Each structure stands twice: as C-alpha cells, then as structure tokens.
Amino acid sequence: MKITLLVIGKTDDAYLIEGLDKYLKRLKHYIKFELQVLPDLKKTKNLTEQEQKIKEAALFFKFIQPQDDIILLDDKGSELSSTRFADLLNKKMIANVGHLIFLVGGPYGFDASIYQRANQKLSLSKLTFSHQMVRLFFVEQVYRAFTILKGEPYHHE
C-alpha cells in the first residue's frame, strides 16, 4: 500500500518543514509515503468561498484515481485514538488497498463533490489547527501508527 497526504499550498515555516522531514524519513522504513503539495490557488480575492472550494476540488480530482481510497481530514470526521488509527491503517493494508489518500482541504473545507467521492472522514481533534500544522501532526501520527503495529516502543499507553 502507498499512503499519500494531499495538500494545497507549500509549508512555509522552517520548524514545520524540519519536523515533516524528520517523520517522512522515519516513515520510509515502514511504508511508501508521499506528501503531495498542490499549488495554491491564484487570485482568490474575487472568488466566493464556494468558488474557491470548487477550484480546489478540481485540483484534487486531477490527482485522484477511481480506485484510490480517500479519507478526508475534516473537523466533522470520526476521532480516533492513536491505536485505533493504527488499526484503521492495518485494516486498509489487509483489505489490499493500493493507494490510500488523505486530503487536507483549503481554508473553507471541501466542496460537496469531494465529500461525495471520499470513503470516510477523520478528525485529528476538536481543536482547530493551521493547515500547515495539520501536516506535521498527521505525518507524526502515521509514523506512530506503524510503530504501534510493529510493537516498537515509540508509543506509550
């Protein structure tokens, strides 16, 4: 299985880039993982929220294939503990999912077409985080999930 975190816009802050690099390197030992960064939308000042979500959806759909399993990182999604998230990834591997894609939406969330295409929604927290921080938190949780599945001492309960 390959896992992709699909996001719009680059990460700007050096400390977040450093953290992402750290966990992306660690993940190479467990699974094929890619952070795919789509370009920011241009000239959004004159767009309504809905128009912006539609344009972002078009960017996402250029990357998504019909057979891909899509999970939205969405504040209305299910909240899982780290061990339950590890179980979710394990079930996806057992089900022989070829490509699991996690999407982080833009500032206004996802267009209805993305919600319709998604296989499920997952929330990282009831708290609100910047889209750039979510990237680091999510990649760390994927790493944590694989250490849980391998019985390694990174995670403590």
Q: What do these coordinates show?
A:
The chain has one domain: SPOUT methyltransferase, trefoil knot domain (Alpha/beta knot), CATH 3.40.1280.10. It is of the alpha/beta class. It has a five-stranded parallel sheet with strand order 2-1-4-3-5. 22% of the residues are buried. α1 links the parallel β1 (2-8) and β2 (32-38). It has helices spanning 14-27, 49-63, 82-94, 112-117, 131-149, and strands at residues 2-8, 32-38, 69-79, 99-104, 120-123. The chain has five helices and five strands. The chain is globular, with a radius of gyration of 15 Å. 43% of the residues lie in helices and 22% in strands. The mean pLDDT is 95. It is found in: Cytoplasm. S-adenosyl-L-methionine binds at residues 73, 105, 124-129. Homodimer. Keywords: Cytoplasm, Methyltransferase, rRNA processing, S-adenosyl-L-methionine, Transferase. Its main location: cytoplasm.
